[in-house]
Amino acid sequence: MEFRSFLIKYAEIGVKGKNKYIFEDALVKQINIALKKDVGQFKVYREVGRIYVDVFDDYDDDDVIQALKKVFGIVGICPLVKIEDNGWEELKEQVISYMRQVYGNKELTFKVNARRARKNYEKTSVEINMDMGEAILDAFPRYSVDVHHPEVLLNIEIRNHINIYSETIPGLGGMPTGTAGKAMLLLSGGIDSPVAGYMIARRGVQLEAVYFHAPPYTSERAKQKVLDLAKVIASYAGPIKINVVNFADVQVYIYENCPHEELTIIMKRVMYKIAEHFARERGCLGLVTGESIGQVSSQTMESLAVINNVCTMPVYRPVAAFDKQDIIDIAVRIGTYDISIQPFEDCCTTFVAKHPVTKPTLKAIEKSEKKLEGIDELIREAIENTEVITVQ
Ligand code: ATP
Ligand code: MG
To answer: Which residues line ligand 1 (CB under 6 A)?
Structure first.
Protein backbone atom coordinates (compact mmCIF):
# COMPACT_ATOMS: atom_id res chain seq x y z
CA MET A 1 0.00 0.00 0.00
CA GLU A 2 1.28 3.43 -0.86
CA PHE A 3 0.70 6.20 1.65
CA ARG A 4 0.83 9.82 0.69
CA SER A 5 0.07 11.24 4.10
CA PHE A 6 1.28 10.76 7.64
CA LEU A 7 -0.34 11.79 10.88
CA ILE A 8 2.28 12.79 13.44
CA LYS A 9 1.49 11.94 17.03
CA TYR A 10 3.26 13.76 19.81
CA ALA A 11 2.97 13.68 23.57
CA GLU A 12 1.19 16.66 24.98
CA ILE A 13 2.08 16.16 28.62
CA GLY A 14 3.46 19.40 29.91
CA VAL A 15 2.80 21.29 26.70
CA LYS A 16 -0.30 23.30 27.26
CA GLY A 17 -1.39 26.80 26.31
CA LYS A 18 1.27 29.01 24.85
CA ASN A 19 3.97 26.35 25.24
CA LYS A 20 2.00 24.04 23.02
CA TYR A 21 2.51 26.38 20.06
CA ILE A 22 6.21 26.69 20.73
CA PHE A 23 6.41 22.91 20.85
CA GLU A 24 4.37 22.42 17.67
CA ASP A 25 6.24 25.12 15.74
CA ALA A 26 9.55 23.54 16.69
CA LEU A 27 8.30 20.10 15.69
CA VAL A 28 7.09 21.34 12.30
CA LYS A 29 10.45 23.00 11.76
CA GLN A 30 12.41 19.86 12.66
CA ILE A 31 10.22 17.68 10.41
CA ASN A 32 10.91 20.08 7.56
CA ILE A 33 14.64 19.85 8.20
CA ALA A 34 14.53 16.04 8.42
CA LEU A 35 12.64 15.64 5.15
CA LYS A 36 14.60 18.25 3.25
CA LYS A 37 17.51 15.85 3.16
CA ASP A 38 15.64 13.63 0.73
CA VAL A 39 14.49 14.36 -2.77
CA GLY A 40 10.87 15.08 -3.44
CA GLN A 41 8.06 17.45 -2.65
CA PHE A 42 6.31 17.45 0.66
CA LYS A 43 4.14 19.59 2.88
CA VAL A 44 4.12 19.74 6.68
CA TYR A 45 1.08 21.44 8.19
CA ARG A 46 -1.00 21.83 11.29
CA GLU A 47 -4.71 21.27 11.37
CA VAL A 48 -6.78 21.60 14.54
CA GLY A 49 -4.18 20.40 17.00
CA ARG A 50 -2.67 17.83 14.66
CA ILE A 51 0.45 17.75 12.52
CA TYR A 52 0.35 16.11 9.11
CA VAL A 53 2.96 15.40 6.47
CA ASP A 54 1.83 15.02 2.85
CA VAL A 55 4.29 13.75 0.29
CA PHE A 56 4.07 13.93 -3.49
CA ASP A 57 5.16 12.01 -6.56
CA ASP A 58 8.77 10.93 -6.22
CA TYR A 59 8.82 10.24 -2.47
CA ASP A 60 9.37 6.78 -1.08
CA ASP A 61 7.23 6.01 1.99
CA ASP A 62 10.01 4.10 3.70
CA ASP A 63 12.41 7.03 3.31
CA VAL A 64 9.83 9.35 4.83
CA ILE A 65 9.26 7.01 7.77
CA GLN A 66 13.00 6.54 8.33
CA ALA A 67 13.49 10.31 8.38
CA LEU A 68 10.56 10.89 10.76
CA LYS A 69 11.89 8.17 13.07
CA LYS A 70 14.88 10.41 13.80
CA VAL A 71 12.91 13.48 14.84
CA PHE A 72 12.75 14.11 18.59
CA GLY A 73 9.25 14.92 19.84
CA ILE A 74 7.38 12.44 17.66
CA VAL A 75 5.86 9.53 19.58
CA GLY A 76 4.08 7.90 16.67
CA ILE A 77 3.88 8.03 12.88
CA CYS A 78 0.58 6.92 11.35
CA PRO A 79 0.61 6.23 7.60
CA LEU A 80 -2.66 7.64 6.43
CA VAL A 81 -5.02 7.34 3.49
CA LYS A 82 -6.79 10.60 2.86
CA ILE A 83 -9.91 10.56 0.71
CA GLU A 84 -12.62 12.93 -0.44
CA ASP A 85 -16.06 12.55 1.05
CA ASN A 86 -18.09 11.08 -1.83
CA GLY A 87 -20.76 9.45 0.26
CA TRP A 88 -21.08 6.35 2.39
CA GLU A 89 -20.99 3.71 -0.33
CA GLU A 90 -17.70 4.96 -1.68
CA LEU A 91 -16.23 5.22 1.83
CA LYS A 92 -17.12 1.57 2.40
CA GLU A 93 -15.33 0.55 -0.78
CA GLN A 94 -12.26 2.58 0.13
CA VAL A 95 -12.08 1.11 3.64
CA ILE A 96 -12.39 -2.44 2.35
CA SER A 97 -9.73 -1.79 -0.25
CA TYR A 98 -7.50 -0.34 2.52
CA MET A 99 -7.94 -3.42 4.72
CA ARG A 100 -7.27 -5.74 1.79
CA GLN A 101 -4.04 -3.97 0.86
CA VAL A 102 -2.68 -3.57 4.38
CA TYR A 103 -3.78 -6.85 6.02
CA GLY A 104 -5.01 -9.10 3.21
CA ASN A 105 -7.28 -11.97 4.01
CA LYS A 106 -5.52 -13.23 7.14
CA GLU A 107 -7.16 -14.01 10.46
CA LEU A 108 -7.34 -10.99 12.72
CA THR A 109 -9.48 -9.15 15.25
CA PHE A 110 -10.42 -5.52 14.67
CA LYS A 111 -12.48 -2.65 15.90
CA VAL A 112 -13.64 0.43 14.01
CA ASN A 113 -13.02 3.70 15.78
CA ALA A 114 -14.86 6.52 14.03
CA ARG A 115 -14.64 10.19 14.95
CA ARG A 116 -16.47 13.11 13.46
CA ALA A 117 -14.92 16.57 13.49
CA ARG A 118 -17.85 17.55 11.26
CA LYS A 119 -21.19 16.87 12.90
CA ASN A 120 -23.26 17.19 9.71
CA TYR A 121 -22.01 13.87 8.36
CA GLU A 122 -24.78 11.47 7.32
CA LYS A 123 -24.06 8.98 10.15
CA THR A 124 -23.12 9.32 13.80
CA SER A 125 -19.82 7.87 15.03
CA VAL A 126 -21.65 4.94 16.62
CA GLU A 127 -23.45 4.23 13.35
CA ILE A 128 -20.20 4.37 11.40
CA ASN A 129 -18.60 1.92 13.83
CA MET A 130 -21.47 -0.54 13.55
CA ASP A 131 -22.14 -0.31 9.82
CA MET A 132 -18.50 -0.28 8.76
CA GLY A 133 -17.76 -3.19 11.11
CA GLU A 134 -20.48 -5.16 9.43
CA ALA A 135 -19.29 -4.28 5.91
CA ILE A 136 -15.75 -5.40 6.80
CA LEU A 137 -16.97 -8.67 8.31
CA ASP A 138 -18.94 -9.38 5.14
CA ALA A 139 -15.89 -8.74 2.96
CA PHE A 140 -13.39 -10.73 5.08
CA PRO A 141 -14.81 -13.92 6.54
CA ARG A 142 -11.66 -14.58 8.59
CA TYR A 143 -11.80 -11.29 10.47
CA SER A 144 -13.66 -11.00 13.76
CA VAL A 145 -14.55 -8.07 15.99
CA ASP A 146 -12.92 -7.52 19.38
CA VAL A 147 -13.96 -4.27 20.98
CA HIS A 148 -11.66 -4.63 24.01
CA HIS A 149 -8.31 -5.80 22.64
CA PRO A 150 -8.41 -5.60 18.86
CA GLU A 151 -5.27 -6.44 16.89
CA VAL A 152 -6.21 -3.75 14.41
CA LEU A 153 -7.79 -0.50 15.50
CA LEU A 154 -9.13 1.04 12.32
CA ASN A 155 -9.50 4.78 12.68
CA ILE A 156 -11.92 6.65 10.45
CA GLU A 157 -11.90 10.38 10.91
CA ILE A 158 -14.55 12.49 9.24
CA ARG A 159 -13.15 15.95 8.63
CA ASN A 160 -13.43 18.07 5.50
CA HIS A 161 -11.84 15.06 3.93
CA ILE A 162 -11.74 11.57 5.49
CA ASN A 163 -8.69 9.96 7.11
CA ILE A 164 -8.24 6.21 7.30
CA TYR A 165 -5.39 4.77 9.36
CA SER A 166 -4.66 1.80 11.57
CA GLU A 167 -0.92 1.61 12.11
CA THR A 168 1.33 3.57 14.43
CA ILE A 169 5.07 3.33 13.95
CA PRO A 170 6.84 4.32 17.17
CA GLY A 171 8.88 7.54 17.13
CA LEU A 172 11.76 8.59 19.39
CA GLY A 173 9.68 10.61 21.85
CA GLY A 174 11.35 13.42 23.76
CA MET A 175 11.05 17.08 22.87
CA PRO A 176 11.72 18.79 19.53
CA THR A 177 15.24 20.17 19.12
CA GLY A 178 15.31 23.85 19.99
CA THR A 179 12.64 23.81 22.70
CA ALA A 180 15.18 23.86 25.52
CA GLY A 181 18.47 25.76 25.86
CA LYS A 182 21.93 24.81 24.71
CA ALA A 183 24.45 22.58 26.51
CA MET A 184 28.15 21.80 26.11
CA LEU A 185 28.86 18.08 25.75
CA LEU A 186 32.26 16.73 26.78
CA LEU A 187 32.56 14.28 23.94
CA SER A 188 35.23 11.58 23.92
CA GLY A 189 35.65 8.59 21.64
CA GLY A 190 34.16 6.26 24.27
CA ILE A 191 30.77 4.60 24.51
CA ASP A 192 29.25 6.72 27.26
CA SER A 193 29.50 10.37 26.27
CA PRO A 194 27.81 10.00 22.83
CA VAL A 195 24.88 8.29 24.57
CA ALA A 196 24.80 11.04 27.20
CA GLY A 197 24.70 13.68 24.47
CA TYR A 198 21.93 11.90 22.63
CA MET A 199 19.84 11.62 25.80
CA ILE A 200 20.12 15.31 26.64
CA ALA A 201 19.45 16.29 23.02
CA ARG A 202 16.31 14.15 23.10
CA ARG A 203 14.92 16.58 25.66
CA GLY A 204 15.01 19.37 23.11
CA VAL A 205 18.46 20.65 24.11
CA GLN A 206 20.73 21.94 21.38
CA LEU A 207 24.29 20.62 21.67
CA GLU A 208 27.72 22.02 21.23
CA ALA A 209 30.72 19.80 22.05
CA VAL A 210 34.27 19.95 23.31
CA TYR A 211 36.85 17.27 22.60
CA PHE A 212 40.27 17.17 24.25
CA HIS A 213 42.81 16.03 21.73
CA ALA A 214 46.45 15.38 22.63
CA PRO A 215 48.64 14.95 19.58
CA PRO A 216 51.07 13.26 19.19
CA TYR A 217 49.91 11.09 22.12
CA THR A 218 46.54 10.66 20.48
CA SER A 219 46.21 10.08 16.76
CA GLU A 220 44.32 11.89 14.02
CA ARG A 221 42.15 8.81 13.77
CA ALA A 222 41.09 9.24 17.39
CA LYS A 223 39.94 12.73 16.48
CA GLN A 224 38.16 11.48 13.35
CA LYS A 225 36.38 8.92 15.50
CA VAL A 226 35.00 11.68 17.72
CA LEU A 227 33.88 13.65 14.65
CA ASP A 228 32.17 10.52 13.32
CA LEU A 229 30.38 10.08 16.64
CA ALA A 230 29.29 13.71 16.58
CA LYS A 231 27.92 13.17 13.09
CA VAL A 232 25.69 10.36 14.31
CA ILE A 233 24.38 12.50 17.17
CA ALA A 234 23.86 15.37 14.73
CA SER A 235 21.68 13.16 12.56
CA TYR A 236 19.15 13.38 15.40
CA ALA A 237 20.05 16.62 17.12
CA GLY A 238 20.96 18.91 14.23
CA PRO A 239 24.37 20.45 13.44
CA ILE A 240 26.96 20.31 16.23
CA LYS A 241 29.90 22.65 16.64
CA ILE A 242 32.88 20.76 18.08
CA ASN A 243 35.62 22.61 19.88
CA VAL A 244 38.76 20.53 19.46
CA VAL A 245 41.13 21.56 22.22
CA ASN A 246 44.80 20.67 21.91
CA PHE A 247 45.32 19.35 25.40
CA ALA A 248 48.78 17.79 25.07
CA ASP A 249 50.84 20.50 26.78
CA VAL A 250 48.40 20.76 29.67
CA GLN A 251 48.43 17.02 30.11
CA VAL A 252 52.18 16.65 30.03
CA TYR A 253 52.53 19.52 32.50
CA ILE A 254 50.09 17.92 34.91
CA TYR A 255 51.77 14.56 34.43
CA GLU A 256 55.15 15.99 35.34
CA ASN A 257 54.03 18.08 38.28
CA CYS A 258 51.38 16.10 40.14
CA PRO A 259 51.21 12.97 42.23
CA HIS A 260 50.27 10.33 39.67
CA GLU A 261 47.45 8.88 41.73
CA GLU A 262 45.71 12.26 41.44
CA LEU A 263 46.36 12.67 37.75
CA THR A 264 42.95 11.76 36.40
CA ILE A 265 41.10 13.89 38.91
CA ILE A 266 43.20 16.97 38.22
CA MET A 267 43.03 16.44 34.47
CA LYS A 268 39.25 16.14 34.61
CA ARG A 269 39.04 19.32 36.64
CA VAL A 270 40.99 21.17 33.96
CA MET A 271 38.75 19.68 31.26
CA TYR A 272 35.67 20.87 33.12
CA LYS A 273 37.19 24.31 33.52
CA ILE A 274 37.91 24.66 29.80
CA ALA A 275 34.53 23.21 28.86
CA GLU A 276 32.84 25.69 31.18
CA HIS A 277 34.77 28.54 29.58
CA PHE A 278 33.44 27.63 26.12
CA ALA A 279 29.99 26.94 27.51
CA ARG A 280 29.73 30.45 28.92
CA GLU A 281 31.15 32.01 25.78
CA ARG A 282 28.53 30.25 23.62
CA GLY A 283 25.52 30.77 25.84
CA CYS A 284 25.21 27.20 27.08
CA LEU A 285 23.26 26.53 30.25
CA GLY A 286 25.09 23.43 31.38
CA LEU A 287 27.73 20.77 30.73
CA VAL A 288 26.98 17.18 29.76
CA THR A 289 29.25 14.21 30.48
CA GLY A 290 29.09 10.45 30.12
CA GLU A 291 30.07 9.74 33.70
CA SER A 292 28.40 6.83 35.43
CA ILE A 293 28.63 6.30 39.19
CA GLY A 294 31.26 3.76 40.18
CA GLN A 295 32.34 2.86 36.65
CA VAL A 296 36.00 3.81 37.18
CA SER A 297 38.03 5.42 39.96
CA SER A 298 37.35 8.94 38.69
CA GLN A 299 33.62 8.26 38.77
CA THR A 300 33.15 7.31 42.40
CA MET A 301 30.85 9.76 44.13
CA GLU A 302 33.86 11.16 46.00
CA SER A 303 35.75 11.75 42.74
CA LEU A 304 32.75 13.25 40.97
CA ALA A 305 32.21 15.62 43.89
CA VAL A 306 35.80 16.86 43.73
CA ILE A 307 35.75 17.17 39.93
CA ASN A 308 32.39 18.93 39.93
CA ASN A 309 33.67 21.47 42.42
CA VAL A 310 35.72 23.40 39.81
CA CYS A 311 32.69 24.62 37.95
CA THR A 312 29.52 26.43 38.90
CA MET A 313 27.42 25.44 35.91
CA PRO A 314 25.00 22.55 36.22
CA VAL A 315 26.57 19.32 34.99
CA TYR A 316 24.13 16.87 33.46
CA ARG A 317 25.08 13.20 33.69
CA PRO A 318 22.21 11.34 32.09
CA VAL A 319 23.90 7.94 32.34
CA ALA A 320 25.00 8.37 35.97
CA ALA A 321 22.54 5.74 37.11
CA PHE A 322 22.94 3.33 34.20
CA ASP A 323 24.80 0.03 34.14
CA LYS A 324 27.34 -0.31 31.32
CA GLN A 325 25.09 -2.77 29.50
CA ASP A 326 22.17 -0.30 29.56
CA ILE A 327 24.44 2.34 28.00
CA ILE A 328 25.68 -0.13 25.39
CA ASP A 329 22.10 -1.04 24.46
CA ILE A 330 21.31 2.61 23.73
CA ALA A 331 24.60 3.08 21.85
CA VAL A 332 23.71 0.14 19.60
CA ARG A 333 20.21 1.46 19.02
CA ILE A 334 21.29 4.99 18.09
CA GLY A 335 24.22 3.82 15.95
CA THR A 336 27.25 5.06 17.92
CA TYR A 337 28.43 1.73 19.33
CA ASP A 338 30.33 0.44 16.30
CA ILE A 339 32.24 3.70 16.07
CA SER A 340 32.95 3.86 19.81
CA ILE A 341 34.56 0.43 19.90
CA GLN A 342 37.12 1.28 17.22
CA PRO A 343 40.50 0.93 18.94
CA PHE A 344 41.82 4.50 18.86
CA GLU A 345 42.75 5.67 22.31
CA ASP A 346 41.82 9.11 23.56
CA CYS A 347 43.86 11.24 25.91
CA CYS A 348 42.45 9.81 29.13
CA THR A 349 43.82 6.39 28.33
CA THR A 350 47.29 7.66 27.40
CA PHE A 351 48.07 9.28 30.73
CA VAL A 352 46.89 6.96 33.45
CA ALA A 353 48.19 6.10 36.89
CA LYS A 354 48.58 2.54 38.13
CA HIS A 355 46.83 3.25 41.41
CA PRO A 356 44.50 6.22 41.07
CA VAL A 357 42.78 7.59 44.16
CA THR A 358 39.18 6.51 44.52
CA LYS A 359 38.32 8.72 47.49
CA PRO A 360 40.04 12.04 46.81
CA THR A 361 39.44 15.01 49.07
CA LEU A 362 39.04 18.50 47.72
CA LYS A 363 41.64 19.74 50.20
CA ALA A 364 44.35 17.36 48.98
CA ILE A 365 43.61 18.00 45.31
CA GLU A 366 43.61 21.76 45.73
CA LYS A 367 46.91 21.49 47.56
CA SER A 368 48.45 19.62 44.63
CA GLU A 369 47.00 22.11 42.18
CA LYS A 370 48.69 25.00 44.05
CA LYS A 371 51.99 23.66 42.73
CA LEU A 372 50.85 24.00 39.12
CA GLU A 373 51.98 27.60 38.70
CA GLY A 374 52.20 27.37 34.92
CA ILE A 375 48.82 25.80 34.33
CA ASP A 376 46.73 28.95 33.81
CA GLU A 377 48.98 30.07 30.97
CA LEU A 378 48.78 26.63 29.33
CA ILE A 379 45.00 26.61 29.68
CA ARG A 380 44.85 30.05 28.06
CA GLU A 381 46.96 28.82 25.15
CA ALA A 382 44.87 25.69 24.73
CA ILE A 383 41.71 27.79 24.59
CA GLU A 384 43.26 30.18 22.08
CA ASN A 385 44.39 27.36 19.80
CA THR A 386 41.10 25.53 19.78
CA GLU A 387 39.89 24.39 16.38
CA VAL A 388 36.17 24.62 15.74
CA ILE A 389 34.61 22.05 13.42
CA THR A 390 30.92 21.87 12.60
CA VAL A 391 29.37 18.52 11.70
CA GLN A 392 25.96 18.18 10.08
P1 ATP B 1 33.32 7.68 27.69
O2 ATP B 1 32.86 6.27 27.39
O3 ATP B 1 32.30 8.71 27.39
O4 ATP B 1 34.67 7.98 27.12
P5 ATP B 1 34.48 6.79 30.11
O6 ATP B 1 33.65 5.79 30.80
O7 ATP B 1 35.61 6.35 29.28
O8 ATP B 1 33.49 7.71 29.24
P9 ATP B 1 36.19 8.74 31.35
O10 ATP B 1 37.24 8.50 30.36
O11 ATP B 1 36.50 8.76 32.79
O12 ATP B 1 34.95 7.76 31.25
O13 ATP B 1 35.48 10.12 31.00
C14 ATP B 1 34.36 10.55 31.69
C15 ATP B 1 33.71 11.64 30.87
O16 ATP B 1 34.61 12.73 30.68
C17 ATP B 1 33.35 11.18 29.48
O18 ATP B 1 32.12 10.53 29.45
C19 ATP B 1 33.34 12.47 28.74
O20 ATP B 1 32.12 13.17 28.96
C21 ATP B 1 34.49 13.24 29.39
N22 ATP B 1 35.74 13.02 28.64
C23 ATP B 1 36.69 12.09 28.85
N24 ATP B 1 37.69 12.20 27.96
C25 ATP B 1 37.38 13.23 27.15
C26 ATP B 1 38.01 13.84 26.01
N27 ATP B 1 39.15 13.42 25.53
N28 ATP B 1 37.36 14.88 25.44
C29 ATP B 1 36.18 15.33 25.90
N30 ATP B 1 35.56 14.79 26.95
C31 ATP B 1 36.14 13.76 27.58
MG1 MG C 1 36.57 7.45 27.79
So the answer is: 186-188, 190-193, 210-212, 289-291, 295-296, 298, 346-348
